[in-house]
Write a structure and sequence with these properties.
This protein is of the alpha+beta class and 252 residues long. The protein has 3 helices and 16 strands.
Length: 252
């Protein structure tokens, strides 16, 4: 059965597309497989996902609450493409567009789930319409470890400060990288404990040094007392010898 779609001048018919066929869909520009609609003209390679065929012509999106977004078959910029406000990637096909604000979204980005659960994180990640986490802070994706521009959308767990790029949300974390991260965390913890232990040791050493200095002072004072006593005994011995000599002389 032939059907019409506002984005294409020719009639379309239902088709099943396989991933190995390598087709690029005309609406979302993705190369997926499954139920689709293709152009009935053999020389035309227009192809739509079933989901793209059923896209709403007008939506209200939370990322742009003041105006509705209109589905356009091509970007409205005189033959040029558009930059998606969500992922910052370029696009040439279907776009949800706000004419008043020149605000554009890929149809796929406009349909993103508000929350996603990853196996490697205990909490759901919430779709955030900005990667801004502070004036002097940089958002780093916890899957690919790449920097995320502040205006880019992300999936984020605020409580754990854990987040990902939009296109990293479905990528499994590399087990080796995860193991390295755990080992690095253990090393950081050990280093912190060592630094804390070093601080305690320094305080203890300072205390011991003060005690040693006091002991040295006491020892020096004791030694000086012994020296003074020896000098007194030496003078006394001199007096006794002189007195003895005097009595011997007088007696003679």
């Amino acid at each position: 059965m032939e059907v019409k779609h506002f984005s294409h001048e020719h009639p379309l018919c239902h088709a099943e597309v396989k991933e190995e066929d390598g087709f690029i869909f005309s609406g979302c520009e993705l190369g997926l497989s499954g139920s689709a609609y293709k152009c009935t003209f053999s020389y035309c390679d227009f192809l739509l996902h079933d989901s793209c065929f059923k896209l709403a012509p007008l939506i209200q999106h939370k990322s742009h609450p003041h105006h509705p977004l209109t589905l356009l078959p091509t970007p409205p910029y005189d033959g040029f493409g558009f930059t998606c406000e969500a992922c910052l990637y370029f696009g040439h096909a279907f776009v949800y567009h706000c004419a008043a604000c020149q605000f554009d979204l890929h149809v796929g980005c406009a349909s993103l789930s508000e929350t996603v659960k990853r196996d490697d994180h205990e909490h759901p990640l919430v779709l955030s319409f900005s990667a801004y986490i502070g004036e002097d802070k940089i958002f780093i994706c916890d899957v690919c470890h790449g920097e995320v521009p502040k205006s880019c959308w992300v999936y984020y767990c605020q409580g754990c400060d854990y987040g990902t790029h939009l296109d990293c949300i479905t990528i499994e974390a590399n087990p080796e990288e995860k193991e390295e991260e755990e080992q690095e965390a253990e090393r950081d913890e050990e280093q912190q404990e060592a630094e804390e232990g070093t601080e305690y040791s320094v305080a203890e050493v300072e205390s011991r040094l003060k005690l040693l200095q006091l002991q040295m002072q006491l020892a020096q004072q004791h030694a000086q007392s012994i020296i003074d006593a020896g000098r007194m005994l030496s003078r006394l011995a001199g007096y006794l010898i002189a007195d003895l000599k005097f009595h011997l002389i007088v007696g003679v």
